[in-house]
Amino acid sequence: MSDSVALFDDVSFDREVSAHSGPVLVDFWAPWCGPCKQLAPVLEEMAVHYDGRVRIGKVDVDQHPELAARFGVRGIPTLILFVDGNVEATRVGALPRDQIVAFVEEELK
What is the spatial distance between Cα 40 and Cα 100, in angstroms, rounded to a whole number? Predict the structure, then answer.
């Protein structure tokens, strides 16, 4: 994983997402999840594309189940877009890049 995509834990999540001013796309995933692995390079590419406009990060639901529970994550991968610390939109599943970009762009309008 590159430096473009942040790895959030219980402490950094509140600092980097909940208290962040601006949009943050968070991928709730697990290392054993095949669709999550398919999504990883797409998120890496998007992190570079949106550099400075949208922060992109990941939460390993196996290591941080309380964060997954806090946001009602029941299936993975789950993408949640936060804006100014608030949940704006959620998508579940390994979506194609164009659908993820459209999801983010719609919420940034």
Answer: 12
